[in-house]
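User: Sequence in, structure out. Go.
Assistant: Echoing your sequence, followed by the structure tokens.
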Amino acid sequence: MLQFHVVILGCLAPVCHSVYHRDMTREAINFTDIQPMADEVSDLIKARFGGARRGEHPPLAVMLRRRGGALPRRLRNAAARLAEADRLSAQPKIARQLDLAGLARAHGDLIAYLRPLGEFSRWRGRAISFAASVCFGLLVLGAVIVWLLVQRGHI
């Protein structure tokens, strides 16, 4: 009877609860899944906190060095474990010894923290930043024009 309830709750949790995302339940089957997980976290850190030029896709270790301080300590440690596993996954004999379940959990925690800021919110933030830059430029241009008019005696 207890197993039946665990199975039912396990099936309902991703559907009913907003904290559980489909990607959080992703499991690492073998060590080749580590690099895509690290790349996904790196891209989300880049999108949320910046730290990379346009078109650049730095590895997770580089993104942690650049913007890792923006993550909470618990997630920073999880990201460091994932970055170390990404480095070690290049060596198959060592990569087979990694704790894939723990890395999948770390990936899920990081994704759950970094993903809520949606693509529309990121686009809106970039648009507001661009508009603010244009307004500041026009303000400076107006101040320079007024200063020139005062210096020449027109005002």
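User: And one key feature?
Assistant: The CA atoms of residues 9 and 17 lie 11 Å apart.
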